[in-house]
Amino acid sequence: QKEVEQNSGPLSVPEGAIASLNCTYSDRGSQSFFWYRQYSGKSPELIMSIYSNGDKEDGRFTAQLNKASQYVSLLIRDSQPSDSATYLCAVKAYSGGGADGLTFGKGTHLIIQP
Amino acid sequence: EAGVAQSPRYKIIEKRQSVAFWCNPISGHATLYWYQQILGQGPKLLIQFQNNGVVDDSQLPKDRFSAERLKGVDSTLKIQPAKLEDSAVYLCASSLVRAAVGVLTFGAGSRLTVL
Predict the structure, then answer these.
(1) Whether pLDDT at B1 is above 70
(2) CB atoms A90 and B102 under 8 Å
(3) Helix, strand, coil percent content, chain A, rounded in steps of 5
(4) A79-114 pLDDT, tens per residue?
(5) Residues of chain B numbered 4-43 and touching chain A (CB < 8 Å)
(6) Half-sphere exposure of residue B71, counting CA atoms within 13 Å on the CB side?
(7) What is the pLDDT of residues A37-93, one digit of tens each?
(8) Which site from A38, A43, A47, B72 is most exposed, i.e. has the minimal number of CB atoms within 10 Å?
(9) Nearest CA in chain B to A46
């Protein structure tokens, strides 16, 4: 059973600070890793993807991957109230036959305090 | 580019009744997924289609859930008979190529309440 674990929070961060979100996964065969953002009552939207060890930066967002530790993180710099949402970690593992649906964690609820 | 369309947005039914959800993916997207998202949890994959063929339905409760994708475009997800634990948002997502390494576009979802 492939599992993706996240702290459900809520994680409360002051405006302008760095928000750090973490995720661990169980399947060592996992190849691709994603962070989706989900506002309350809305559907998930992709914000970051990462495929190799190290850091990947996109604007205020940085994704970090450590495959040896089976650990993925997302840093949000200069946090804004509009960043308040649930952040879902998703993992894609190689499967035979073309099956490649993502396995999602439960999500971390992030609150940015003005 | 039009997004992924889903209907109905909301549905309330009694347990043991049946319900059907419809999804129209982004034009040209060959891969279509149905996810179930229970309140407070992440989306759980139910079924993946590639064109009109099923690629993965390992987590679909086949005794009560069924899905089809006719002509490789629209898809319908059916639940019969519904149970209380089926109360959830049913999300349809599509991708241009197989998961396009994770780039799924989700529809707005269909919220089901089973009483």
Answers:
(1) no
(2) yes
(3) 5, 55, 40
(4) 999 999 999 999 987 666 677 788 999 999 999 999
(5) 33, 35, 40-43
(6) 6
(7) 999 999 999 999 999 999 999 999 999 999 999 999 999 999 999 999 999 999 987
(8) B72
(9) B103
- Cβ contacts (< 8 Å) between B107 and chain A: which residues? 43
Token pair for A53: 């060890």
SS (H, E, C) chain B: CCCCEEECCEEEECCCCCEEEEEECCCCCCEEEEEEECCCCCCEEEEEEECCEEEECCCCCCCCEEEECHHHCCEEEEECCCCHHHCEEEEEEEECCHHHHHCCEECCCEEEEEC
| Residues 56-85 in B contacting A (C-alpha not used; CB under 8 Å) | 56, 58
Contact state of B101 with A44 under an 8 Å Cβ cutoff:
no
- In the chain, the amino acid numbered A43 is S
